[in-house]
From TrEMBL:
Taxonomic source organism: Branchiostoma floridae (Florida lancelet)
Compositional bias annotation for Polar residues: 12-21
Entries under PANTHER family matching the protein: F5_8 TYPE C DOMAIN-CONTAINING PROTEIN, FTP DOMAIN-CONTAINING PROTEIN
Record carries keyword Nucleotide-binding: no
Name of the molecule in the record: Uncharacterized protein LOC118429572
Family affiliation: Belongs to the fucolectin family.
Residues in the signal sequence: none
GO BP terms: regulation of cellular defense response; regulation of complement activation, lectin pathway
Positions with biased composition (Basic and acidic residues): 347-364
Keywords: Calcium, Disulfide bond, Lectin, Metal-binding
Assembly: Homotrimer.
Amino acid sequence: MGSPGLAVDGNRSPQRASRFCTKTSQEDDPYWYVDLGYSVTVDHVTIVNRQDSLIEKITPFDLHVGDSTDVTRNPMCGGHHRFCLTDTEHVVRCGGMSGRYVGIRLPGKKRTLSLCEVEVYAATNIAWGKPTVQSDVAFNGVASRATDGCRDPDWNSACCTSTPAQSNPWLRVDLGTEVSVRWVVIINRQDRTGRRLNRFELYIGNEERVKRNQPCGSVIYIPTNKNKIATNCNGQRGRYVGIFLPGNSRTLSLCEVEVYEGTVTRKRTSEVRGTEGQDCGEHQAGDTWLSDDGEENCICEMNQTVCYEVICGEEGQDKPFQGKGGLWTCPEPAAEEEESGTVTGKRTSEVRGTEGQDCGEHQQGDTWLSDDGEENCICEMNQTVCYEVICGESGEDKPFLGKDGLWTCPEPAAEEEESG
């Protein structure tokens, strides 16, 4: 049988498969996985199939990305994937999924898994270690936690930010220079208070004031069973990435903000695993610089130098240029090429599980109390969106009706500022 290491040896030849490709015996649900060494954010995976009598054996297959060595325990990247008989390779786009292990599994009885090459193309988080500020701080939930690289969704791990309950709270990441942003990934808290982040707005631009920049899509919601969302900003350019919660008595609390540039940087599996890497020398964690040959951007991640080519346009058709910071960056896409990939505003029924409705007599931006008096409501995109006001880090404080007739949160007591 072909050694599993043949799938990451850099040899893409689908010919002479017995020498260059992996192969399992015939078995139920065969699988293969690669250990990248640490968790990375995966843009896409390219699989090179063999071109002989086993060409059809790989269809259908499943691709999994996650932190478990048990392939089936990791989330699937898309559904079942199929190779066309005329194709030597197949690209699976994973759009911001993260994990240490990338696995391929053939579902079904008596199947044989054979792979000639698997290439993992990862993305570099350019927000890591960058200066971050927010509208206010509560419970020691400082803004720098949003870019410290810690994705732990548990408040007690000291990885999450928090503002007090206030009107229109915001958080802003300074990337240091104008870049072309493709993906912004938000890691939310995974407790009862995680609901408070729902109905947020994302802005990218060169203004320090968050709302003065261009929005990336419209109002964004995180499904109740998820603690992460990846928003496609389609190459929108800017130095600052901002998160804004519209409304009264809102608490902005999140665990990580990750920003990925251009069409997402490309690194082959061997480079992701560090086989060609080196330590950062004089550079510190988060530093970025141009490679010695001037062809690639480099970044210091986990005390390892990672250099990558910036490829612009979906097929690499656009030419990158050197921005103000000397790093390669992508040109702004033409208007006709822009597509909306953002999770946009949803109807009340999708957020609360109750029937949605339009705003009736209310105008855009109007706020009012729900008919049952339990929630605040706002008119957005001609849709009524109602939300519960939760006060305190664990919902322990009781909201009250303010002068405007809406539920609001009490000011936190001074002695509670240090508690989590």
